[in-house]
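Allow me, if you will, to draw on your knowledge of protein folds for a short while. Thank you for your consideration; the sequence and its tokens are set out here:
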Amino acid sequence: MHRRRRTAIIVSAALLLAAPLLSACSDQAHPGAAAVVGGERIEVSTVQGAVKQVRAAQENSPEAAELIKNSGQISRAKLYDLIVNRVVQRAADDADVTVSRKDMQAARTAVVRQAGGEEQLAAMYLQQRGVAPDQLDSVIRRDVLINKLAQSISAANEAEGRQKLNDAFTAAAKSLDIDVNPRFGAWDNQKLELGEYKAPWISQVTKPQEPVPATA
């Protein structure tokens, strides 16, 4: 559990260079959509709303100037999160893996304790992962889901485990037929990247983990 909590806490959320401008034809297939995943739209307004939450939290931080400077283009990172949430959920569904309320309570209690309190946790996630306080539960749930998926795969060693997880995510991504507005780049199923962006938590959080201290 200690290793999973540690990786979930210390993952860095490196952000991107400027995203490409919206081209004249980028919205023709799905007007107003940032992406279509599994036939469901992720609206541009949804991405913008997520960005506003992060910006508001950054502006209220004592380190506002530094945080904003280091996250100049966060729109693609927020869209990436929204897409990957669906990819991880599909992979978990395919493996009959679920996250219970008890799992969530245990995971949140653990990360709050390690961070030293709720305020410290919020500040840490904002700084290191570009996550606003209102987005914490979604990110923690995804980390727990990945952890439980890793347990269900039961790989013999770390390299094999990571490869099996990547294979599961790639299969899930392909099945969702992800179509991204060119404004945000192109999605790569194999690399799990959006344009040139791949959040580092994919390789770090998906290392073989110890079980979470709660059962479904």
About this structure: The first helix runs from residue 2 to 10.
